[in-house]
Amino acid sequence: MNTKLPRQLGFWSATILVLASAFGAVSAAAQENPVKIGAVTFLSGAAAGPFGVPARNGAEIIVEAMNAGQLPAPYTAKGLGGAPVQLAFTDEAGGTTKQVNEYRNLVQRDNVDMVIGYISSGDCLAVAPLADELKKLTVFFDCGTPRIFEDASYKYLFRTGATATMDSVAAALYVTELKPSLKKYAGINQNYSWGQDSWNDFEAAMKVLKPGVEAATSQMPKLLAGQYGAEISTLLTSHADVVHTSFWGGDAEALILQGAPRGLFQKSTVVMTAGEPTLVRLGSQVPDGTVIGARGPFDVFAPDTELNRWFRKAYEDRYGVVPSYPAYKMAQAILGVKSAWEKAQAANDGKRPSEDQVIAAFEHLSFEGPGGKVEMALGKGHQAMQGTAYGIAKNAGGKITMVNVKTYPATKVTPPDGVKSDEWIKSGFKAGK
Amino acid sequence: MTAADRTLPALSLALQVFLIGGWFLPDWAQSLLILAFGKGLVVLGLLLLIRTGLVSFGQGLYYCLGAYAAVSASKILAFPDLMSDALAMPLFGGVVAGVLGLVLGFLLARYRAIFFAMLSLAFSMILYGLLIKMSVLGSSDGFNIDYRTLAGIKLPDGMKLYALYALSTLLVFIATACLHRYLRSHLGRLAPAVRDNELRVEYMGSSVRYVVHVNYIIAAVLAGVGGGLVALSIGHIDPDLAYWTTSGEFVFVAVLGGTGNVAAPVLASLLFEWIKSAAYQYAPYTWQMVLGITLLLVIMFLPAGLWSIFQRRAREA
Question: Which of A16, A109, A129 comes nearest B17 by C-beta?
Fold first, then answer.
């Protein structure tokens, strides 16, 4: 007879008990009154500085003012229809495997009422089916891939930011208007989905707008490579009139700091589709004549409304820098939820609306953000449509201002509902068939 | 070594506890356990390699391949029914990983120490680089996958997660039990002998390269099956599965658990996923540091891994 078996049995059951209690202990008791929002953005890693942290700051500013009832009209009601909002932040770093589990934890363990977040398109694609599976209202605020609502449709999922298609299409429109006689264009984009998609959209749009004008070179360095000497040389010798780049964060800064001394920005017109956060960080180091985009009407392109003035002041007072587009997009997502929630509450005789009622109110909603009007017009009313703008950076006495700003209405740079982005570009931007 | 082998009874007991206990766990905990089990299988393969004296920093290659294989097969070979099966997909992933392990093994079995580690890392990064460039497979965004049946039986919505949980528990049991038997077989016992003195093994008439090659293939199959399981549980795959940090994480968990017993990698994997999840929740800004400190503490106070706690107790008893 094996006398050690009881000991083993004791050990295993103890292990199970410890695991089970550890899992159980952390499940917070669901509270009735406040609305708990799980907020997911990059808090560590390369995307934290340029995107994740401004987004978190934007969320904090908006939610604090919202709970105190200090937001300008039409958002003067406290919290969400009177119910205070609690934010629970989670780091988006760690890859899709981690994010899917953390999403599950937010919904099933921490019992959040909704989730707002996700900057990486990979994370968005991974989380999207789970939103419907767990039946939890989920709002993507930043990720750009059009695949989410073009390849599938969801009930519980919304995206309050426009897709990345708009960025490259508007960039192509802008440079062809700026340089009607352009002969050659080139690109430098990071070799992963964002960079590949951005370049493909830009190239396809250029083929439609300037048939016969060919791409001189397309450089695809590794993401976060940091050193772009060889690529800059190739771009310089390609004699391109226009250089397209979707670089962001440290890569965008590196391209400017390494490219500017070698004359890349003087020789070619460089269009940075996601250049605005770089503008905020590098300031006057951004070379004159760089074409800058903000992935929407944000920051330097934001309209002069009371909401925008309030948002910029509150953000600058607290964090000492101007809000970049991720902060705007996060604010936009929260205000979208607030609009939908209060619309649903009004329809529910002033009582706290159910999740289904909020979703019904959110579909095809039109609301005001600090960047202007947002219409949930695509993806059966789940995907936002918003215009965008491009402008040229001009260094005036150490301060960067935007000149030659052109705004593009949403209908000009976004495919109509039900049409896939790449097909829409290839068809010559034709409105629905 | 004690005369009586307590590992197998303990494993079957654990299987029963986890199968029954899992039913009562909330969905998110089941999901976390599937992830831990899937990764535990990969680490189990690492345990075998470490016992042979080899550290692979490239198990992500087979982990990722296992995840991609089943899905690509359903797209390319057009077996949609077979390839949406929760059992068939990880097993197919294991087979594909095993075949690649067989091929690469001819080269890698000739290398040891840092050269083996670096070569294995290089191969995993080649796969990563290839996947990043393939927009057909979604590039860095990857794509979603789903399962509808288990061994041909259609799963109702409410049973999908538990079915996958039960399957992963069962697969981990089979893998640990078989590996335990294998380690006590003639070939299995040659592994530590190869680590200690290759020359002596050759003099005794055994082929060192054969031992290394076989163990490398077993580790590859385990990683492939693990990758398949994780892919099903997550519902999404992307090239990060082959990135070197993923492989590094497996080595981390292997060091955490130690190589004392086949249960050590699975236990370490459970603990690791739990610490990681708790760190995310309570320290969203410093979760990486929590993991780092954990590993430092283990290396300083338990250089032979967590399993050495039980070994020490068993010796004292």
Answer: A16
- pLDDT for the residue numbered B7: 85
- Asked if residue A395 and residue A288 are part of one domain, the reply reads yes
| Paired sense of beta strands A383-385 and A269-272, if any | unpaired
Number of structural domains in chain A: 2
10-residue block means of pLDDT along chain A (433 residues)?
50 53 43 82 90 95 94 91 92 89 91 94 92 94 91 94 93 94 94 91 94 92 90 94 93 94 94 92 90 94 94 95 95 96 93 94 95 93 94 88 93 90 89 50
- Residue A24 in any domain: the answer is no
Boundaries of domain holding A190: 165-294+387-426
From chain B, the residues in CB contact with A223 under 8 A are 140
Neighbours of B4 (CB within 10 A): 12
Domain boundaries along the sequence of chain B: 25-242
Pairing of strands A388-396, A291-293: antiparallel
> Based on the domain organization, do A240 and A370 belong to the same domain?
no
Report d(CA B185, CA A189) in Å as an integer.
Answer: 54
pLDDT band for B222, please (50, 70, 90 cuts). Answer: very high
On whether both A270 and A351 belong to a single domain, the answer is no
> By the CB < 8 Å criterion, does A90 face chain B?
yes
Minimum Cα–Cα distance from A23: chain B residue: B29
C-alpha distance from A432 to closest chain B C-alpha (Å):
26
Token pair 């709002």: residue: A139
